[in-house]
Amino acid sequence: MRFPELLTFADILQQLEKFNAIIDVRSPAEFAEDHLPGAINCPVLNDEERIRIGTLYKQVNAFEAKKLGAALVARNIAQHIESQFLIHEREWRPLIYCWRGGNRSGAMAHILSRIGWPVAQLDGGYKEYRRHVNAALETLPTQFDYRVLCGPTGSGKSRMLQVLHKQGAQVLDLEQLAAHRGSILGHIPNTPQPSQKAFESAIWQQLQQFNPKQPIYIESESRKVGNLRVPDAMMNAMRAAPCIVLELPLAERIKLLMRDYEHFIANTTILNEQIGCLTALHGREKIQRWQDITLAGEWEQLVLELLRDHYDPSYQRSIARNFLALQQAHRVVLESNKEADFHTAAKNILCKT
Hints:
Order of helices and strands: EHEHEHHEHEHEHEHHEEEHEHHHHEH
Strand order of the largest sheet: 1-5-4-2-3
CATH class of the largest domain: Alpha Beta
């Protein structure tokens, strides 16, 4: 008979590749907020059941809550075994965790180990993992050498990161991890932003995979990307790092932005709602003009005026104040927003930075 192996997160970090599955037994809502990288959700109590047991615990007593909880947990574990686990051989090694490494993960770990699988259980559960991520993000970002891509809106910073990644560079794309393009119009349709915890987990996971001896290319960001906050240590390291300024002709910037934000053309109502958020900065008269231009479908004129009157002045104020190495930046001039020009520029960047 085998017993679950109780492991600390430090132990697990050294042998993650040895687990055949990472099983999060928390409720779907808990899992959706954040979870260990690569985990699958096999809840032993669903969201409604968890609330029901918690209410019974508070309003009646622990014994009654545990009785009903045991019945629900046993039923749910049986369903997971039948639907997902029966296909696995004796050597299958799962790692199981819940919120604090207690009753929920313990129940599944016990049953699976009695079957004969070499089960491991995370001591301290998700809470211990979260403690590790919080601590790591205070120091881990400072252990790398960054190259910060700067340039006004539409100069192709995100696209350059993609091309640099294709050419083998280490890239940390915070906007991709945050599911947001980092401006008032940065919301991506049908793509909600992750939670703050999930965002931080994604940053930690990527940093874990990087080689400290090679530079990381990253875009100049504000402290917040949409609704998400960039960790302070990451922000400070970025702002002290060498800069690379991308320069793209205004006409090409307009073309690039019209292509990247074409979803707004199909939904002018949402676009005008977002433009309305700029009223405090630009006044009702200018906002009304931009909204009228939107309704008229004069997209090039709209983008031109947004760049000229909002994005470019805002960028100039922010970049000079926050990125200390801007004056010594390596400048990369692109003639167009064509893919070939970005690949040529990326090679230039990799050779000189």
